[in-house]
C-alpha cells in the first residue's frame, strides 16, 4: 500500500492532475471533493500526508485543519491554495499546516515538497520495511536485495511495499490489485501478472525466488511457497 496521501480539493481539474500524478509515482491516493467529505476521510484512515485546499464547499480548509489538529491529528498537511498573501501564509502555518504552496504551481515542485514531508514523517515513525534480504526505505524509495540496489518502476515498488507489509501470507490477485492499483479487479487484465513477473526477475537477479505463485489462490512473498 505504501505511503497514503489524502487530497482534499474541490477543483476537479487540479484534483485529477494531482491524483493521477501521485499515483504514477507509486503513492496510494484518495480524493475528497469538499470540506465535510474531507473531514470524514481524515477520521476514517491513517494518512502519511494531506494536501488541502483553503477554499472548499461547506467546511473551509483552515477550519478543517484547525479541527484536525485539535483532535490530535498528526499527519503533515500541505496547503494548496490561490491565497498568496503573506498574511494568509502565516495564518495557514499558524493554523497547523506544515507547508504552503500557492496556485498555480509547478508539479515538480509539488512532488519535491511531497517527498520532503513524507521523508520527515517516515523518519519520525520508521522508514524501513524488510523481509529476508530485501529492504525498502519508504522515505528515499531506495529498494535493495542482498545489499544491491533494485531499479524498480513506481508500480513495482508499490507491489514490493505491499508484499513486504504482508510477508508469508497468501495474497489473492484481487486484494493485491485493488490495493496497489486502487481500482476494482475485473479478473481479466494481465497487468498484475506482468508487473509481478518483472519484479520477480529483478529480485531473482540477486537471490532465490521470493514471490511464489499459488495456483487458484494468488501469491505468497517469502522464502518458501508454503
Helix content percent band = 40-55%
How many domains make up the coordinates?
2
What distance lies between the first and last C-alpha atoms, to the nearest angstrom? 23 Å
Gyration radius, in Å: 19 Å
Structural summary, described in words:
By secondary structure, the chain is an alpha/beta fold. It has two domains: 4-124, Response regulator (Rossmann fold, 3-Layer(aba) Sandwich), CATH 3.40.50.2300; 128-221, Arc Repressor Mutant, subunit A (Orthogonal Bundle). The chain has eight helices and twelve strands. It has helices at 12-24, 35-44, 61-70, 86-94, 107-125, 154-165, 173-180, 191-204, and strands spanning 4-8, 28-32, 49-53, 77-81, 99-102, 128-131, 134-137, 142-145, 148-150, 170-171, 211-214, 218-221. The strands form three sheets. Strands 2-1-3-4-5 form a five-stranded parallel beta sheet, sandwiched between helices. 31% of the residues are buried. The model has no long low-confidence stretch (mean pLDDT 87).
In short:
The chain folds into two domains: 4-124, Rossmann fold (3-Layer(aba) Sandwich); 128-221, Winged helix-like DNA-binding domain superfamily/Winged helix DNA-binding domain (Arc Repressor Mutant, subunit A, Orthogonal Bundle), CATH 1.10.10.
List keywords for this structure.
4-stranded antiparallel beta sheet; 2 domains; Arc Repressor Mutant, subunit A; 5-stranded parallel beta sheet; elongated
